[in-house]
Amino acid sequence: MQRTIGSTAGGTESAAADRRSRWTALIVLCIGMFMIVLDGTVVNVALPAIQSDLGFTQSSLAWVVNAYLIAFGGLLLLAGRLGDLLSRRGMFLSGLGVFTVASLLCGLAPTKELLVAARFVQGVGGAMTSAVVLGMIVTLFPGQREQAKAIGAYGFVATAGASVGLLAGGVLTQVLSWHWIFMINIPIGLITGFVALRLLPADRGVGVGRDTDFLGAALITGSLMLGVYTIVTPAAELGWTAPQTLLLAGATLVLLIAFVAREATARNPLVPLRIFRSRNVSGANAIQALTVAGMFGMFFLGVLYLQQVLGYDALQTGLAFLPTTVVIGTLSLRYSERLITQFGARTVLLPGLVLIAAGLALFARVPVPGNYLTDVLPPTLLMGVGIGVSFPTLAALAMSGATEDDAGLASGLVNTTMEVGAAVGLAVLATLSATRTRELAAAGVNAVTALTGGYQLAFLIGAALVVVALVIGLVVLRNEPKPETE
What we know:
This is Major facilitator superfamily (MFS) profile domain-containing protein. Keywords: Cell membrane, Membrane, Transmembrane, Transmembrane helix, Transport. By secondary structure, the protein is mainly α. The chain has helices spanning 2-54, 58-61, 63-85, 88-108, 112-131, 133-140, 144-175, 180-183, 185-199, 214-238, 243-265, 279-309, 314-320, 322-343, 345-363, 372-398, 407-442, 447-476.
């Protein structure tokens, strides 16, 4: 009897230690992901200071952001799949190292050319790190209830990091200098890497053989990189109907079609097309792309409204979005798992999308001049609630069809649709907003009113994109079985 009791106690202690280890590993993964997400917006606040210090022209300044986006968006899918083939832990650690070294180079860059080159390398490291995080989470937490809670933490990092970046960028740029928006990554990256080496379980991928689909890898990477370049450069600068934009968009489509044809016939495809047969996986990724595209109306054009219309500085702008971040964090970390467990992912997602669309529609009514407490805070809080419940459920649905062998691919696909949705959404909404502003100015409307009119149109179109996402959710998604009690 004593031996039985002792073995039971030992088993309980071992299970508790394993649980602590897995949740600590989740914190490490989320810190690495948070550093990558934060970098996406922290740089935007510092762009004027970077331009003044390194002598960028207005047009060349965009490459501080574009160089990162092209590498990051173009390599996410490939990095996720390579994590499956080689090692997700190895991919995460390698990406963390590349990102940290590139951050050092960015912070020390004495010329604009070196800064742009270092930003490209930083994008490579960011893609390698973030592409496999969600795949590692679902393998660390196979139980549905714990997995839902862990994905809630991931959802908070992936969505709230953007608004935290605005605040961090304002503080670092104003108190220290723009160099520190990059240098701050170095101690975070080193500590995260050291802890990850000790805590993340070693894994071996399925392996790279003679029949590995290198042609498919080249086609999808070329298609994504060219597509992101088309969105952030000729489309944004020359317009969507410019000959150069149409030519590059056509080339992107040709590469994508060639990639699909290759995957359908390859013996060992880089991206098995069976992953798209799941209605929930395909539907969740489509919904995510549309929702992120609409959301960027708040996170980026909303920033411009606060600064150019209400006269906020960088620090005030970051503080203005802080309540939204708190709401997203509270719902993602504390309540999303309970809601998904009780009602199912699809049932939780749909009201969340309604709230996001309603927040954007309400934002489209901001007056000139607006008041933060009555005109800005209510719609942003409404969106915060919607985002806090929607994104963990989207991640759960998007990973629902992944096997252990292709979890990295599914994770990379989630991040790719988020990145492409953000890039397309920002480019489209910014273009339409600027066009509307020019039309109002030409009609004799004063500058501030014309700016506001442009932002209002962008917010309204963003709401329409989320409504389309809602329709897809209603038609395509299916209820998942309720998570078991653990």
